[in-house]
Amino acid sequence: MNKIAQDVFENGFAGPLDSGIRPGLLASAAEKIDRMLEARDAHPIYGRFSVRDWHLIDPEVLNLFTDARIVDAVSDVLGNDILLWRSKIFAKAPGEEALGWHQEWGPFNGEEIGNDKPALYPAEHRRDAPWNLTMWLALDDVTWDMGPIRFALGTQKRRFPIAMEPIVQSEFYLDPFRDISTLDQLVTRARQSALVLDIDTSAYFDGAPTNLTLEEAKALVLDKLRVERGAVTLDFDEREHEIVSVPMKAGQFALFTERCMHGSSANISDCRRLAINARYTFADTLIYPFRQSDEPFDGSNLDVSSHRCVLVRGRSLDPRNAVATPEELRGEQAFV
Question: Which residue, 254, 260, 261, is CA-closest to 277?
């Protein structure tokens, strides 16, 4: 077993590892992502704001995930038939709080929020293996004070229970009002479902009085969010585990099984921290089995009927999956 696979199987993660990504590509991709985040653009595939799967839209973002060193590292763990099935942007603003400890043991059946819509069905003989592998790539230099990703070593060997509590108490709740200074900003962002990731807030102000103050509008949002549910990890005390924080240079990455307990510390610096992850799985995993059903919405309330996986190495092994090669996508993409 090579060192990367050994680290993933024994510790839950490997890294930081060096990619072969050119600094110019990192900077260009980061600039595009910054523009999208500032504008809160609707995702061309999902029809509303989302930090998910911009690799399906922009060839430079796709190039981050098909870099040879990254795919080689993933192959060390998953073998030679690999699908990229998802990506997500992580922008941690100066002063932003920690992201709580969490693990994903199962089939992504609702992720951080209270839905129950399994997204992944691994082949039977894979189910005891780390069949959902995440690559977390730093687009900025990430120093100790910027909220680097962190891991609790060895926790991929135990499944910690979760409870679904009001989302404002969950591991994933972040202050939705941090950079909002006007009522118009708040209402617009809520109508775009760009206020709280993965929560459909588009109707929160339907029927609300038109003369609300900003503070009254915030209270209205919080009342509605208390009805939403999010995951809270139980029986996990970080003092009982060896915790490893992973600062990185731009272009470095960590590779980990989602079963390993992970999170990030608060960003106490004056700089934003921009990163992006990609999730890879075996090419015989069934992905979004409900994609062409009458209810093609995933656990994050996104319509995945037009979603495709990317075959980054080898063969596509389940004909039910919608799969494209990187070359096919690059021929179609146009960043908007």
Answer: 254
> Among positive and negative, which fits the CA dihedral 225, 227, 233, 238?
positive
Q: Which residues, in sequence order, are CB contacts of 327 under 8 Å at separation 6+?
A: none
> Which residue type is seen at 298?
D
Q: Which two structure tokens, joined as six digits, stand for 97?
A: 């709080």
Question: Of all residues in the chain, what percent are helix, strand and coil, respectively (each to 5)?
Answer: 25, 25, 50
User: Could you tell me the domains of the chain?
Assistant: 12-157+247-330 (2.60.120.620), 161-234 (no CATH)
pLDDT in tens, 3-44: 999 999 999 999 999 998 999 999 999 999 999 998 887 899
What are the b/e assignments for 50-74, b being 16+ CB within 10 Å?
Answer: bbbbbbbbbbbbbbbbbbeebbebb
- Residue 175 neighbours by CB under 8 Å, 6+ apart: 96, 97
Contact 297, 306 (CB under 8 A): no
Banded pLDDT at 111 (limits 50, 70, 90): low
